[in-house]
Amino acid sequence: MRVGNLAGRLVIVTGAGAIDVESASGGRFGPEPQAVYDQWAEFAGWAASADAAAAQPYELAQLGAPAPAPRQSFGIGLNYRDHVAESGLTVPDQPSVFTKFPSCITGPHSDVVLPPGGHTDWEVELVAVIGTTARHVSEGAAWSHVAGLTVGQDISERISQLAGSPAQFSLGKSFPGFGPTGPWLVTVDEFANPDDLELGCSVNGDQMQKARTSYLIISVPQLIAKLSAVVTLLPGDIIFTGTPAGVGMGRNPQRWLAPGDEVVSYVEGIGELRQRFLAG
Questions:
Q1: In terms of Cα–Cα distance, which of 11, 215, 13, 19 is closest to 124?
Q2: How, if at all, do strands 238-240 and 73-77 pair?
Q3: N or C: which terminus of the chain has fewer CB atoms within 10 Å of its end residue's CB?
Q4: How are beta strands 124-130 and 179-186 bridged, if at all?
Q5: Can you give the chain as a three-state secondary structure string?
Q6: Do residues 33 and 148 touch, judged by C-beta distance below 8 A?
Q7: By the 8 A CB rule, do 131 and 141 touch?
Q8: In 3D, which of 99, 103, 106, 102 has the Cα closest to residue 5?
Q9: Whole-angstrom Cα distance, residue 148 to residue 84?
Q10: Residues 6+ apart with CB under 8 A from 215
Q11: What is the pLDDT of residues 250-270, one digit of tens each?
Q12: How open is the CA angle 29-68-79, to the nearest 5 degrees?
């Protein structure tokens, strides 16, 4: 099942179009995309029998973030070995956790204003959306707490990110528009193996990143187990799970995004994001 945000309304996306959930459910579920995660089990049960004939055509440009206002938004750094190597760092033995403040979360097709004087970089990521409250969850039970998966771009302004000693990550990763996600949420049952998906990213048509999520140092179930051992993961929370090698900062010479650049990001079995960058 694909669950989307169409012009701010909760929809189920099919090959024929989008089903407006509030209308199709007779008001049993409201129109707000974020609110559905607090009723996820009930919603998923109802959605399996939703009337496909209710689907209507839609414009891709109207799609928003599938979890547009998470209470918590987690980022995981240094979670692919090749990215650790290009960063000149050592493999962490625990998740390197930061936040992307929820105000930066946007939809799959967007214009992003570049911070003046910055070094803005790309980081394609698989994003997991929590569907059931998770506290002290075992690795084996972790997938049952995930509503679904989506594509994310952890856009990062490196000067802000690395300023100070010790460096802090969260502000440099949370400028307006720096958290595009989408194009929709795909439920876990849709994947033959949710732990092994190809992901990648291109800039102006040149491929910069390509990897598989099976290369994650700390897998999605392991992340959920480790995070939930410390904090309570809430329905609708999102986890950016880390980026593979190929970021601009790791290149020689380094490459930063410029006005007019377009970044296309994808995850196998989900879809793609498109971001165009504008002068600040």
A1: 215
A2: parallel
A3: C
A4: unpaired
A5: CEEEEECCEEEEEECCEEEEHHHHCCCCCCCCCHHHHHHHHHHHHHHCCCCHHHCECCCHHHECCCCCCCCCEEEEECCEHHHHHHCCCCCCCCCEEEECCHHHEECCEEEEECCCCCCEECCEEEEEEECCCECCCCHHHHHHHEEEEEEEECCEEHHHHCCCCCCCCCHHHCCCCCEEEEEEEECHHHCCCCCCCEEEEEECCEEEEEEEHHHECCCHHHHHHHHHCCCCECCCCEEECCCCCCCHHHCCCCCCCCCCCEEEEEECCCEEEEEEEECC
A6: no
A7: no
A8: 106
A9: 27
A10: 80, 81, 82, 244
A11: 999 999 999 999 999 999 999
A12: 125
Burial of 57 from C-beta contacts in 10 A (0-12 / 13-18 / 19+) = exposed
pTM score over 0.90: yes
| Tokens 């209470």 belong to residue | 71
235, 38 contact by CB (below 8 A): yes
pLDDT at 42 over 90: yes
Model pLDDT for residues 223-242, shown as the tens digit of each residue: 999 999 999 999 999 999 99
- Name which of 83, 123, 121 is nearest 217 in CA terms: 83
**Residues 163, 169, 171, 176, CA torsion sign:** positive
Q: What amino acid is encoded at 37 in this protein?
A: Y
The two structure tokens encoding residue 70: 């998470």
Q: Judge residue 194's burial from the number of C-beta atoms within 10 Å of its C-beta, 0-12 exposed, 13-18 middle, 19 or more buried.
A: buried
pLDDT band of 164, cuts 50, 70, 90: confident
